[in-house]
Amino acid sequence: MNIKPWKLTLLAALSVSGTAALAQNTAVDKALQMERYNEARSTLLRQGQSNETSFQLGRLYQMREMPDSAAYYFSRVSYDKKEPMTMIAAGRAALAKGNATEAQSKFDEAVKASKGKDLSVFTMIAQAYAESGTKDVSKALEYVKEGEKFAAKTGKDDAALMIARGDLYQKIETGGGEAMNSYERANTGEPNNVQAYVRRGQLALRSRDYNRAKENFEKAISIDANYAPAYNALAETYYFAGRYDDALAQFQKYTALAENSTETTAKNAAFLYLTQKYPEAMVEIDKVLAADPDNLAMNRIRAYSLYEMGKNDEAMTAMQQYMTVAKAQDKLIADDNVYYGKMLIKSGKTAEGAALVDAAIKADPKKATELRKELAKAYLSAKDYPKAISTYRKMMQENNGGELTDKVYLARAYEQNEQYMPADSLYGALLKERPEYVPGYQMRARANANLDPDSKKGLAKPYYEEYIKMATASDKPESYKSGLVEANKYLGYYYYQKGDKTASLPYWQQALTLNPADEQAQTAIDAITKPAKAPARRK
User: Fold this and answer.
1) Using one digit for the tens of pLDDT, what is the confidence trace for 304-349?
2) Cα–Cα dist 105/111, whole Å
3) 315 and 347 Cβ atoms separated by less than 8 Å
């Protein structure tokens, strides 16, 4: 499946990462891992000010990419030369402010205060780097190595340290080799560590290894059926694998367990949009915008969704408002211009809209095939069939003949433009390539029916007959019900106008069985079965 890069970004931007496991095991730690950030914050604030509370609040804000708030709370931790955690808090505050040198100095003080014999100190320092925005993790990995030496004395890897190690390597790796090795070591040291399995699955998902990703997420769920992040990640796996129904089912489980927050609602809206559930997405989008009117991601997909729902005038207004703000913030993406171009085309401003899409093609030639496909669909939607035809043909020439759906859309464009011969030719090529494609026989039958308006030649007859045969024998014949009605009525009429009522009647009867409300079928049956009037007797 061809996933647009910005769609990956949309999901990632609205995803909230789980935290590295802490040495402490508290209700707050669990809430953070479960992505229940408001709950964690409320719990901490109720506990009143203390070093531990301020430290945890700092972590919470750092993980939510709010460095100023993180620095504020870390700075509230009272320095105690006998307590390494207070020095680590000072180091975290420095990292939040972008001062790596000062941070390292504070972390070194913490190691010195613990005499280098406290594994939790090395783990907390590794977590500090992993959860911060810093990209240079070379010094962090040195602390990890010291922690590994200490852990080796126990005979097994420490899960919390290994998760932090993996998170650090994720900042610098493209393939994820050492990161995956770290998470696997975490599970070797602690076989039931749910978070390590989720991290392993996320790495597999990043490399498009869907089966491996699914395996790890399901393992996490088997250990803790209430671990919300695993359902979220599993939903994304199914989505990217093209299994949309499964994706939605898993995401519904996630939302049932996740915190009811603006962020969760936004993620739900994005997920519904990406799975083409546009009306449902609009409900969630409106909820987010009611609380956060300036949310760019939601304003973007609101405009996109309105277009997909066929509300082009509303989509144009929403898109123009969004683009004004996004442009001012330098946050426009290529797909914004593509969508706006499609909206312009549909509104009748064909040249202006096409220019925007063409500009996107020139800006990124690697996306030419995908963008031409979008442009052709826009022409179809605007009923500009000649331009749709020329665009599809150019796109297919550039793409080795195009995909199955491209041929179908081009053939439909020919039909709408009353060019039935090339449509029939395309459907013929399609069925030669994919003889098991049941809808193709109905499509070719319709093209031939248009070539033979009075049905006297019976050009559509062999294709409707084959359609009935294949649709009836399929796994889900009920999904072809309307097509079967159409095919039986055509064949019934063909034989009727030939004068063969015996052959005609069964087709009309079958059409009526499939759709008892079909008045045309009932009328035909009555006409065929009505007794002939006796000739008038002479007086």
Assistant:
1) 999 999 999 999 999 999 999 999 899 988 889 899 999 998 898 9
2) 10
3) no
Q: What is the DSSP string of 62-113?
A: HHTT-HHHHHHHHHTSPP-TT-HHHHHHHHHHHHHTT-HHHHHHHHHHHHHH
* Rounded CA separation 240/167 (Å): 23
pLDDT in tens, 32-50: 777 777 788 888 888 888 8
In three-state secondary structure terms, 331 is coil
CA–CA dist 380, 293 (Å, integer)? 34
In the chain, what's the furthest Cα-to-Cα distance? 131
- pTM of the complete model: 0.65
Q: What is the DSSP string of 51-67?
A: HHHHHHHHHHHHHTT-H
The Cα–Cα gap between 175 and 208 comes to: 11
Residue 401, CA distances (Å) to 223, 413, 433, 509 in order: 49, 16, 12, 42
Environment class of 526 (CB within 10 Å of its CB; exposed 0-12, middle 13-18, buried 19+): exposed
- If you write DSSP's letter for every residue of 349-372 in order, what string do you get? -HHHHHHHHHHHHHH-GGGHHHHH
Phi-psi region of 277 (alpha: psi -120 to 50; beta: other; left: phi over 0): beta
